[in-house]
Design brief:
22 helices, Alpha-Beta Plaits, elongated, 5-stranded antiparallel beta sheet
């Protein structure tokens, strides 16, 4: 009996399994039971089916299933694959070219598709009239708002040209944007009122009206940067003629691209869409090449205007800016070919990557233009403030930080796009593994750059004061030397030390993030430092001595010192030695270890004393009054009053000779230009004493000859030298 029923049971089981599998396939998209996910449900069904089949096979109810045949490995012949791909692309050319009749067919039936009079909708004429009315209303709204805001925009442009203020540029951009906003509101209202839920008419109206808004948005963007009518607030560093030329050409090019995308939107047949897309790629490439060639000089001037006068590599940057079109043309041709390849092979990665690259470079150019405009405006509107401490230094520092951040972010996006999405060199899992290491590397390098810029910002000279004169205290024509502050004096040493620390820390961190062991580097650096310390004791002695001199604040750049071996004005120093400029022009370079005792003539204050010889009959009270009057006059002089700590004084009688009374005068001034102050005081005293009738002593001594009446013999004596007594 079992033998007779066995075939029947096998057939029933097979039918049930088929129904079960078919039902599972039908309900594959049905939601799983509560508390289970779809994946868990599918695995449960599969495991139950496999268990039933295995059990029946063991009992002999159904024969065991044979494993599926293994797929025959295919030899990866790159040349064959490439040849096959080329054949496929060439085979699609007739299909694309054969789609042009479908293009004319779709365009020919477009009027009948837009005519909805039979279905109770708008007729073709009424529809086109409403669409034209919407276009005219949107443009009229934009023009009206532009005319209403024109006087205010003109006034703000004049105010910006006179007094500056970046907020005025922002307000101007908002006023320009109000006109486009009015156009967008009219378009949105028209789409929601006249063309709501009308099928083909709604889609066609949306294509036309949205294209209008897109075109006007691009024109607004061009206007903000080029400002053909308002040169004072023009962001791009170009002339008026170039601004008009670029604005017209770019506006026309964008209009052509928008029309190209619009006519694809009204097509229906896939063959027609493919043919239209291929046509757009050819026409678009031709338009871009034409625009590049026509604007190569204007854009070259734009790029040259972004280069700072003192920037590093200015020559190379200028050469690239003048020949930018030789870089742009191959990129645009490659982009056009990639777009054509997109149509022929249905592979979208290359065009997407090329477009993203182009957009990133254009965005970086626009950001650089905006940052350059901000710096130019700041320098032009406040040149004096730009040179004072801290003021004028924060903005360039922040701009450099923003520029570096944007370039690093752009590079990261481009690397990820081309390596993963376009070329497929690394898959998503591999990129995830590399991302952490490279992110750490990039962030570390960026932070190191920020730290180095911060060091320059903190240790740079805070003012552009006059350079110390070569003659030390002998300042010509009253020009005062400006000695550096203590921070400015030690800035070179700190800059070198901090730069080494920043570089070494960043390098070790980057190597560690890339999986390189840094232990040998640290050990090698320790051994090298130990060898240097033992083998260069004199050098270490000079460096340590210099550090202590700087810690003691013994001298600063611009001060006049005497170290015994030489004297002069401190012009600078290194880790090992100091550089002094002598009054005669010689430069003395002295190691810190040999510097010895330092006498500083330019610190805190300077007291000057000089003598003048007057006749024995001089009225000392009158002399004191005249001296006081001259001292008060010098205190009130705007060119001299900042130098005085104590006014000019008559200290009293310094010496009495046979024919003169030597009087001593005293001045206490700042140690900036003491010799000049002394010369000015003596000049004024001579004039004042002459006007007051006070006479200087003559330079003679009476020496009577033997046996003859006394006869005066003149012996010249300098007024400020010690008195000469007759022997």
């Amino acid at each position: 009996m079992w033998c007779g029923t066995r075939p029947l049971l096998s057939g029933v089981v097979i039918v049930l399994l088929s129904l079960l599998i078919g039902q599972a396939g039908v309900r594959a998209d049905s939601p799983p039971p509560a508390g289970m996910t779809q994946q868990q449900y599918d695995e449960l069904v599969k495991s139950v089916g496999d268990s039933v089949v295995r059990t029946l096979a063991e009992k002999g109810v159904m024969p065991p299933s044979s494993p599926p045949p293994l797929a025959k490995p295919v030899d990866a012949d790159e040349e064959a694959l490439m040849a096959e791909r080329v054949r496929d692309i060439l085979g699609n050319v007739p299909r694309i070219l054969g789609g042009y009749p479908d293009v004319w067919t779709d365009l020919a039936i477009l009027p009948s598709r837009l005519d909805k009079a039979a279905g109770g909708g708008h007729s073709l004429g009424a529809y086109l009239g409403l669409l034209s009315l919407s276009l005219a209303g949107a443009l009229l709204a934009e023009i009206s708002i532009g005319r209403l805001t024109l006087p205010r925009r003109t006034v703000m442009a004049r105010q910006f040209a006179a007094t500056g203020g970046m907020w005025r540029v922002a307000v101007l951009a908002i006023l320009d944007g109000l006109a486009v906003l009015a156009l967008w509101l009219v378009v949105h209202l028209a789409l929601g009122t006249f063309f709501a839920k009308a099928g083909v008419q709604t889609r066609f109206a949306a294509i036309v009206l949205t294209g209008l808004v897109t075109w006007r948005l691009f024109l607004l963007f061009f206007r903000l940067y080029l400002r053909p009518e308002l040169a004072a607030v023009r962001l791009a560093p170009v002339s008026d003629e170039s601004a008009h030329h670029l604005f017209r050409l770019y506006g026309a090019a964008v209009l052509i691209f928008i029309l190209g995308r619009a006519w694809i939107g009204v097509l229906v047949s896939p063959q027609a869409i493919a043919a239209a897309t291929f046509t757009n790629s050819v026409i678009g490439t031709a338009v871009i090449i034409f625009v590049i060639l026509r604007t190569r000089a204007d854009v070259g001037d734009w790029l040259l205007g972004l280069i700072d006068e003192g920037s590093r590599g200015r020559g190379v940057k200028s050469a690239v800016a003048q020949r930018w079109h030789w870089v742009a043309l191959p990129i645009m041709v490659a982009l056009g070919l990639a777009r054509a390849y997109d149509v022929l092979s249905d592979r979208f990665e290359v065009p997407i990557g090329a477009l993203l690259t182009l957009n990133i470079f254009v965005g970086l150019l626009l950001v650089e233009t905006l940052l350059s405009f901000i710096v130019r405006t700041y320098r032009a509107s406040a040149p004096a403030r730009f040179q004072r401490p801290a003021s004028g230094r924060v903005l360039p520092f922040l701009i450099r930080a923003v520029r570096a951040t944007l370039w690093v972010m752009a590079a990261a996006v481009l690397v990820r796009t081309w390596i993963v999405d376009v070329l497929g060199l690394v898959d998503e899992q591999g990129w995830t593994e590399l991302r952490h290491a490279w992110s750490t590397t990039v962030v570390t390098a960026l932070l190191a750059y920020f730290a180095w810029e911060a060091v320059h910002f903190a240790l740079g000279r805070r003012s552009d004061g006059p350079t110390p004169m070569p003659s030390g205290q002998d300042i010509q024509a009253g020009q005062a030397p400006a000695s550096a502050t203590r921070l400015e004096t030690i800035a070179p040493i700190l800059r070198i030390g901090l730069g080494i620390i920043i570089f070494m820390t960043a390098a070790l961190t980057i190597l560690s993030s890339l999986g390189v062991s840094i232990t040998p580097f640290i050990a090698g650096a320790s051994v090298f430092g130990l060898a240097i310390s033992f083998g260069s004791q004199t050098l270490v002695h000079d460096i340590v001595s210099g550090l202590f001199y700087l810690a003691d604040d013994a001298f600063r750049v611009g001060e006049y010192i005497d170290c015994g071996k030489a004297k002069g004005t401190v012009e600078g120093f290194t880790l090992r030695s100091i550089r002094l400029r002598h009054q005669s022009g010689q430069i003395h370079t002295i190691p810190f270890g040999q510097l010895g005792q330092v006498t500083n003539f330019s610190r805190d204050w300077s007291t000057l004393k000089f003598n003048l010889r007057f006749t024995r009959e001089t009225n000392l009270d009158a002399l004191r009054k005249v001296t006081k009057k001259v001292g008060l006059a010098m205190l009130e002089d705007p060119d001299l009053k900042e130098d005085f700590l104590e006014p000019l004084k008559l200290q009293g009688i310094a010496d009495v000779t046979d024919n003169a009374t030597v009087m001593r005068f005293k001045i206490t001034v700042r140690p900036i230009r003491p010799s000049y102050i002394q010369r000015e005081a003596m000049k004024r005293l001579i004039v004042a004493f002459k006007e007051a009738g006070i006479e200087f002593a003559g330079g003679f001594v009476a020496v009577p000859p033997v046996g003859a009446p006394p006869t005066p013999v003149a012996i010249p004596v300098a007024a400020s030298t010690p008195a000469i007594r007759a022997s």
